[in-house]
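Technical annex, item 7. During the second reporting period the consortium partners agreed on a shared format for inverse folding records so that results from different sites could be compared directly. Each record opens with the tokenized structure and is followed by the designed sequence. A conforming record, contributed by the partner at site C, is shown below for reference.
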């Protein structure tokens, strides 16, 4: 009986860790490395920085190919402008 309790508790801890990581990743609080086994080709679109101004408005700096853009977005619209800030180092 003691073995079943230990297995249940271990499964409960693993599930709690998985759900916590999924929640934090969804909110953008953590970034997980891309561990895919497919091609190692760099993505064409990458979000470099993101800042929410309110619940429905925000700005982001994105890289498309080798160009950086400032993206502003709200519930009903979005705007994409070239970004002339300092380029960030590629990873």
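Designed sequence (site C submission):
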């Amino acid at each position: 009986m003691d073995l079943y309790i230990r297995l249940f508790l271990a499964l409960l801890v693993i599930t709690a860790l998985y759900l916590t990581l999924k929640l934090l990743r969804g909110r953008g609080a953590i970034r997980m490395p891309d561990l895919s086994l497919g091609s190692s080709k760099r993505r064409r679109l990458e979000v470099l920085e993101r800042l929410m101004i309110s619940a429905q408005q925000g700005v982001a700096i994105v890289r498309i190919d080798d160009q950086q853009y400032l993206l502003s977005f709200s519930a009903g619209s979005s705007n994409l402008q070239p970004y002339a800030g300092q380029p960030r180092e590629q990873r």
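The beta strands are 45-52, 58-64, 67-73, 78-82. DSSP finds one helix and four strands in the chain. All partners now use this format for quarterly exchanges.
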